[in-house]
Fold these 4 entries.
Entry 1:
Amino acid sequence: MPDNPTTQPTSAQIHRWRKYVADEVAEGAIYRALAQKKSGQEKQILLGLAAAEERHEEYWRNKLGEHARPVRPSLRRSILRFLALHFGSVFVLALAQRAESNTPYSSDADASPQMAADEQVHEEVVRALATAGRAQLSGNFRAAVFGANDGLVSNLALVMGIGATGVASGMVLFSGIAGLLAGALSMAAGEYVSVRSQRELLTASRPTQVTLTAAPDLDLDANELVLIYKARGMNDEDAEHRAAERMGLFTCDCNPSFSLNPEARAEEFENEHEELGSATGAAATSFCLFASGAIIPILPYIFGMTGLAAVATSVLLVGAALMTTGGVVGLLSGASPMKRGLRQLAIGWGAAAVTYCLGLLFGTSLA
């Protein structure tokens, strides 16, 4: 740790260093709060990060010397600390990863090279900690974002296209409700068929107990039992050994590493089925997710709004929802929430603009 500076720091340096102290204190508190909700190695890793932030805090306090005093941390780190204390989820780790990646130490001459390197390492450590949570969320989260966004964009495009033709607001509302139901039912049906088909494929692929039931009656000199085990992935030696066990040439499972015992994996296959979930549950979830997005574009019409005001309100509501879902995606991926939100917004509004122009074209043609 460096000694107290011999030269008096400038007011700009004092202000900046105080902010660094406050942020380091907040980051240490974030990691300690996360550690309280963890156990084992993950807890030790988080406490190690907190200790590193304390070293950085001490570095800046030494440089400040007599000018050191309590300062409020930045708004971002204050929010992170609150989330860590009350939630402690993968979202907090994703936010912490982004905070570590935005360190100013790499461009600040007052920061030591070791501290800048520390922050790079911290980002990678937090990234690794968040990986497991991201993996758990990826499937369900992808389905949720896809379902809600599909409802938002498709129904906004439908409402914009129908509304641009100049029809009555009641017709726009009816079209929006029809689009909601049609899309939600289509999503539900597709998810039901997808999950049901996947479960059936897994069932068809699961090894049966034929090696147990047929073995007593097989010809000892000519049978295809070895072929079963080869087809299940065993090499020649393992397959022959397992077949000999089944034929009764061995009285015990002489070498379990040879046997592999695929019959004992029946419970594992059942667990795989459970991870897929039920087809009915998947269908209901898809229906609700699509409907939750598709209802937003028609809210102004449900509450009696008409004309351009209804169209503008619908566009703004959907825009806010798209920014939210895009921001959450960016947050989880460790990218900029603003950029991801704007990307979702551009895609949604772009699709709506195309159908609106088509509606105007058809409306003019009909007139």
Entry 2:
Amino acid sequence: MATMADVARSAGVSVATVSHVLNDTRPVLPRTRQAVLDAIEELGYAPNALARSLVTARTRSIGLAVSAISNPYFTEILQGVEAAAVQQGYGLLIADPRDDPRHEREVVQLLHERRVDGLIVAPSADPSALVAYLRRHRVPTVFLDRVVEVPADGPPHFDQVCAGGAEPTARLVRHLAELGHRRIGLVAGRPGFSTTRERAAGYRDGLRAAGLPYDERLLAHGDSESAGAERATGGLLALPAPPSALITANNAMTLGALRALRARGLSVPGDIALCCFDDFAWADLFTPRLTAVAQPGRESGTHAVRLLLERLADPELPARTVRLTCSLMHRTSCGCPDPSEAVEGTVT
């Protein structure tokens, strides 16, 4: 196995020069740099990542803490993070915080102790302990999907990437109202998540724009999971005046709502219209095909890596929040006629 000394001899330079080329710790003449790179290629030299980390104080690794990795949306995020990280020469360490604040704090500390260069985290509903740890240890971090409230006493402390949630939800409400529905229910996510707050706010905005009253009994929390949504949907259907249309606030809850409807022998959209937040690969394979808001999962992951690497390169950059655009996949579960193909409409 070739060593750094072998590369130095082949390129006719010192070992220190080879180190500077590999670690980018000092300017090297282009001709000399190329000679070193040619020698590395010819000899098949593989730098020792551990040794390099001792020189640069960097491990070229990123920690990713995201719950419910089995969720198709978070799988897309993971794919985006991994592809962007590998493209930039970074490895990925993954942990599942389980959407539990205490466990979240523990796994983030574990990733930090593994000396990752920075973290990408989808925070829980109560990230106070997490934020305190990250601030205390000055860990470069990007919050993903769920944003953390900007402190009242100053600028935000972390970069954040998320998709807009309010307007797409309002658009679903307005569309259902245009189809004649007057009692539109929402199966919302877990209380405390920023995504839950935004989609509930969009639900109310949509009702207001359509001239419909807000009835708190028509908003039920499915806790962002299938079983919770099945229970929440059952509660909505048991109301004296149940909804004639339903919006589910993520894809896991869509499956739970469909189970509740099937258990009661209700058809979509014949007995009840259904729209959902989060598109997934088989949404247009259902009968009827699901009208859904598609979030840019891979793009979110890619943006998170970009923001983190920019933060590592310049720790003094002002904190940034990037909001990405969703797309409406208009299909037939809302009660519209079956179009020849899905029509995409951009919403923010």
Entry 3:
Amino acid sequence: MTFPFDIKATDGRARTGVLKTARGDIRTPAFMPVGTAATVKAMTVDQVKQTGADIILGNTYHLMLRPGPERMERLGGLHKFMRWDKPILTDSGGFQVMSLSGISKLTEEAVTFSSHIDGSKHVLTPERSIEIQADRLGSDIVMQLDECVAYPADEKRARKGMELSARWAVRSKNAFGTRDTQALFGIQQGSTYENLRKESSERLQEIGFDGYAIGGLAVGEGHEAMCEVLDYAPEFLPKERPRYLMGVGKPIDLVEAVYRGVDMFDCVLPTRAGRHGQAWTWDGPVNIKNARFAEDESPLDPMVPCPASQDYSRAYIHHLIRADEILGKILLSWHNIAFFQALTAAMREAIEKGEFEQFRKDFRARHLKA
């Protein structure tokens, strides 16, 4: 395997470890801030680093449209372009097959997109997705192209998507080949059907990947249904390789997924919520726009080691958001990313101490209502 994955401790199915990459170690459980268009929205890379993030995510579909993969390569790749020298994982563009289904066409060979920017046509094959991610953007962790089936889906539709994803996994692996400083992850599909998840995992392991993602969740199925899938889906994947739950999620989702054996996560929630006035704290989410914060001199969350969390009053941030000042969005995004990093750090510590079940119980009591 390209990147060694050392599991340091386990507590039930939860585990903590280190994925060693050419650009640095990724401590797991790990939350990857989403840098869709070569930026974690409203944050500088220095702020992102200060939160404790070991890795960020870039979006192939959006970067393919603007500034374009060939231009990105001429400019030295994604790391140099955005001044981030730690690992980057890029998604494959497969999620847009579902989320932009109105402007895309799917065949066995490829998915054809109409750009949401200017209407121009783009063809994304598994081979082209690998080329863009690995050769043009210079991603450290590359994802196979897959089809993410919308929820709900009957078993026939879910099987069709799973089987196409499996065939595309073979093509993605062949296009990627063997590389010394980049890794390729396969993606388990199968919607909410245990037999399909199992078959998908078996097919992926026959191909062989550096890591394995659980795809097709966080697409509207809800927290309980997601947990039901995670009761079995991670166990179908190799224990010795990292498991990545794509597009998840709320803090309670992360805790429950780690409890079930997941190692890596990404989600736009922290920065999106921040831009809309929501702060995530150890006691749950806070809508800072509420009038009750107008004269609240307490910080957002003094237990989160971040200037945005500790150095500005809720009253001040309330004012900034109500006045639609850019700084308000910056501070809340910064705080939320820092909270998610503090959460993963706390989970790592609890697993190492053998106290994760109590951590989960306490966290659920505070956050399930959120």
Entry 4:
Amino acid sequence: MPLGLIALAIGAFGIGLTEFVIMGLLPEVAADFGVSEAAAGWLISGYALSVVLGALGLTAATVRLPRKPVLVGLLVLFIVGNTLTAIAPSYEVAMIGRVIAALCHGAFFGIGSVVAADLVPSDKKARAIAIMFTGLTAANVLGVPFGTFLGQQAGWRATFWAISGIGVLALIGILLLVPVLKHAADEISLRKELGAFRSVQVWLSLAVTVLGYGGMFGAFTYIAYTLTEVSGFDSATVPWLLVLFGVGLFVGNWLGGRMADGNIDRSLLIFIAGLLVVLIGFGALASSQMATIISLFLMGGFGFGTVPGLQSRIMKYAGSAPTLASGANIGAFNVGNALGAWAGGVGIAAGLGYTSPIWIGATITVTALLVMFVAATLAKKSEAAQPTLVAAN
């Protein structure tokens, strides 16, 4: 395994931590700045919106630049943003820090996916991407619980100082361990990168990302209410149950990378179909604590098992111009997060109960499965037609 993948994974760990850890620290942040928890929640929403902007804007702006220096610059932006959040004298300054940190998120994962794939042979690209995303899953399994604990014990600002330190470690790792890869700037242009979006398969891949991730997050965003109000767990056990979900993310990411290297479309159909079955079972059996425990693990596993395949698929169909498409796919993950959270909230607001986000997530996942089936069918027909065209010529 190239050591550069470890450096990329550390960067992914820090970025994942800064996105998710604040969810457990909102009461402390709100109290410190004297704002409502709803206002503090915009530190999450503002971050997510900025991820989408950075995924497209920064990736497009740096497409002709060597990728290693770009990754270094993105991590500097990450460190500055989190340091500003840690020292923020006001809510407004904290928001600016969150936005700055978020801008690097999509571009880092988008460009980092291309770099990770370039570090290994062609038959191991999805596994290399999965190794980088292991940092993101580790952030959920280990980083968020410990980051929340640190913030509760030493103040929420201590957590963001720690995140800045992780950013410095990732920066040093990329400087030392990621090689300068061949990058013919004269062969790469924004026009060529935008040309990748003429591919129907690129758009279908983006749609599957939005819907597949939206289905999982439709169920997950309000999971604390489901666990306490439906399954009957004590609120003190919720963080540990979320660790179980994080373990599922880790296992799914690992397995998804290996399966995608064998056959991307088949692996995606299996994982999306598996997620659908899990969500239906979870919605029906949420009142059972044992069924809920099993469902949490499987939901994380099948939900995140799609990530290496989705990222590899869009890079495959983007051809020789994968960077902007890769960044757009990271943005699509966050659009899916927002879609799922909004749709699940609509169900609760309509009085449909705390299992309604799970059923809504299942409905979104059905759509993802149908779009993926169409994409796979079209791809198979196109590949079958290629030998015929070659023979005719």
